[in-house]
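Provenance

Sequences were taken from public entries as deposited. Structures were produced by running a predictor on each sequence independently, with no templates supplied. The record for Formylmethanofuran dehydrogenase subunit E from Tunturiibacter gelidiferens is shown for reference.
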Amino acid sequence: MAMLGCERLGIEDPKGVDRKRLVTFIEIDRCATDAIAVVTGCRLGKRAIKFRDWGKMAATFVDLNSPLTPQDDTPVFKAVRIAALESSKQRARELFPHIENKNQQQMLAYRELPNVDLFHEEWVAVPIHPREMPGYKSARITCAQCGEGINYDREHLLGGRTLCQGCAFPEARYYRPFTEREFGTNSEAGAETSPQPACEHC
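Predicted structure for Formylmethanofuran dehydrogenase subunit E:
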């Protein structure tokens, strides 16, 4: 998938001279994500991988050297979206019916099958706001409630206070602070250095 994406965009050396041309949107948190990062050189820490949790074995490869007409104040780029075809598993079974292990069956078949039997391709336009680009610099702002630093313009102004997303929208957090009861039950290890629990009403 990653090799095909680079090929379609004319990117020959994604980890070398072309390393600043590519941003990749990945739609699943499985092994394909790691493989795409290895092949393309795109990394989350470099802001060159964008994760969209759609549960699809698909990725969109964006060429930053191919700008299109901007959308409002947001640059738009030419990209190719590639999705794995569900029918490729059946093709693997047809090619290697004598192999019982499905993973082996698919690995062998995927080496031989043409791209048209493995992937659906689609040319797409992808808007990427400047603040989402690799290398974007922004002021570091402190949340008025928790005191943690906020990067990349992710702060929210509510009631005259600048808050991080977790404090502005606590119901949308991916975590929940321990209550006093939970803290008492689970505090045997590291109790001396643990942060204080939230009160029962928080």
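The first strand starts at residue 22 and ends at 26.
Helices lie at 2-9, 31-40, 87-95, 102-112, 115-118, 165-168, 180-185.
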